[in-house]
Amino acid sequence: MSNNLGMDVRKSPRSRCRLDSKIHYFKQVADGRVINISRTGLALELATKLTAAAGSQVTIENDDIGHLEGVVRWNYGGRVGIMFRPNSNSIAKVAAYFRHFHQEIRPVLRG
Q: Domain PilZ: where (predicted)?
């Protein structure tokens, strides 16, 4: 991705997926689905409202990967972008997920 405007852009390519998850922010718990993931972060489509602002610490709970710790990068339109905390074991868990479980999800086109 080109960075002509000096903006902070994605540094790692994302892979599409569909992983049912829960996101925890203090005492709030929201259901959602991971819609894309990379080695540094993920995007989560929310089924319920979450009030976490950019910079908030969150935990994502997922059956395939486990518990992931991260920081909210953006929260807009029912979706949340999460950057994994570099000092947690989240990055190692995601690397193991890519090695053993990940299957790229392709969009279904109806004709």
A: 9-90
Distance CA 30, CA 73 (A): 17
pLDDT at 11 over 90: no
Tokens for 64, please give them. 């395939």
Q: By C-alpha distance, which of 26, 5, 104, 105 is closest to 72? A: 26
- 47/106 Cα distance (integer angstroms): 21
Of 66, 38, 32, nearest to 52 (Cα)? 32
The mean pLDDT value for 25-39 works out to 92
Rounded to 5°, angle at Cα 63 from 60 and 64: 100
Q: In whole angstroms, give the CA distance from residue 36 to residue 93.
A: 15
| Residue ranges with strand state E in the chain | 15-25, 28-37, 41-46, 57-62, 66-76, 79-84
